[in-house]
Write a structure and sequence with these properties.
The protein starts with 6 loop residues before the first helix and ends with a helix. The longest helix has 43 residues. α2 packs across α11. By secondary structure, it is an all-alpha fold. The chain contains 13 helices and no strands. Helices cover 82% and strands 0% of the residues.
Length: 361
């Protein structure tokens, strides 16, 4: 007789797992990022090994390029982005002070109500209370305070990725050898290969698409006359790794800057529409064409995953949400008992392709 699942134990396990993911986020984020980087770079390491290049040399080259790229980005773009973040509250306040007939009417009604209340209120007033105003720390101060943690996570990610890549196939081989049955070993090898292929296909394609999108959006913002269009190109490239939310946030940022440049609401709306139009063309036409339909994921699941990882792991969580979701989907697809969940995570095209393959076999 098949034993029924104990939902109380499952619920307790999920709660403890959620607490652990949040509590150990500073440690888990670089671990997960390093493992994803290892799976993406493992095909390159195998090709280099076939050419006679040691895995240690390949790992050093990959990590050196990654570190140099991060240093270049920080050196060239940290100041303008930090300056924009510092000026953003003032820009938003200027936007809120924009003349609005409805807002003026409500302000006048509020003033009339306050005058009537003062007329019927008791004339006696209590002594004024001394209040000490404490200013909130600025963006730069918060960034400086968080810098040691961020730098530590980056260093841990690169170092761990170096050890994983330099080990070559040893890490995967040890993982396969730990499984008891031959069928499990074969399934584990197929699973790792599928994860490598899917992650490489997704991240390689999406990086190229985001690079081109950043150039196009930077040119569009330059045509609108916004200051520092290269910065908007970098912002568009970076934010587009976050599905849905990144495009909207980038468009809002560009429209706020546009309003402060032109002091005109319609210009801000048109800049927002320009940004969203370009990202919509990319998301609805270019990305489905460049990236195989078998990588399509359920949009609702993607949005929930991005929101969930943003909740527990902040900005980094939003970036790695889709790669983690792809990895989970591949694992579910390769396991017969969880294949239905893998189909649920896939998009419509991927589900149709899977059904045709099942009928063919």
């Amino acid at each position: 007789m098949k034993e029924k699942p104990n939902w109380a134990q499952i619920g307790i396990f999920l709660c403890l797992a959620l607490f652990f993911l949040d509590w150990a986020s500073d440690f888990l984020i670089p671990i997960v990022a390093a493992i994803l980087g290892f799976l993406i770079m493992r095909p390159i390491e195998r090709r280099m090994s076939k050419l006679g290049i040691p895995s240690v040399i390949t790992a050093f080259a990959i990590c050196a390029v990654a570190g140099a790229g991060l240093m270049f980005a920080v050196w060239n773009f940290s100041f303008p982005i930090t300056q924009l973040a510092e000026d953003l509250p003032d820009m938003i306040n200027d936007l809120r002070r924009m003349p609005n007939p409805a807002a003026e009417t409500l302000d006048k009604l509020g003033e009339a109500a306050k005058a009537a209340e003062d007329a019927v209120a008791n004339t006696e007033k209590e002594p004024a209370m001394a209040v000490k105003v404490v200013e909130n720390p600025g963006f730069v101060s918060s960034l400086v305070a968080a810098a040691p943690i961020v730098v530590g996570q980056i260093v841990l990610t690169i170092v761990l990725m170096f050890f994983l890549i330099s080990s070559g196939s040893t890490f995967v081989r040890k993982l396969v050898e730990s499984l008891p049955r031959f069928s499990d070993k074969r399934a584990a090898v197929a699973m790792v290969q599928q994860v490598e292929q899917k992650l490489g296909q997704y991240l390689g394609g999406i990086t190229l698409i985001n690079f081109c999108l950043g150039i196009v959006i930077g040119a569009a913002m330059a045509a609108w006359g916004l200051p520092n269009p290269i910065m908007f190109a970098v912002i568009a490239f970076s934010l587009n790794f976050v599905p849905y939310i990144g495009a909207v946030f980038g468009a809002l940022l560009a429209s706020i800057v546009g309003f402060n440049v032109y002091e005109d609401a319609w210009s801000a709306v048109l800049i927002f529409a320009t940004y969203m139009t370009l990202t919509s063309i990319e998301g609805q036409l270019i990305t489905p064409y460049v990236i195989s339909n078998r990588l399509r994921l359920n949009p609702t699941v993607v949005f929930v995953a991005v929101a969930f990882f943003a909740w527990i792991w902040s900005v980094v969580g939003m970036v790695i949400a889709v790669p983690v979701l792809i990895t989970i989907k591949v694992i579910l697809d390769q396991t017969p008992s969880t294949r239905a969940l893998g189909v649920f995570l896939g998009g419509e095209e991927a589900s149709d392709t899977k059904a045709q393959e099942d009928r063919a076999t």
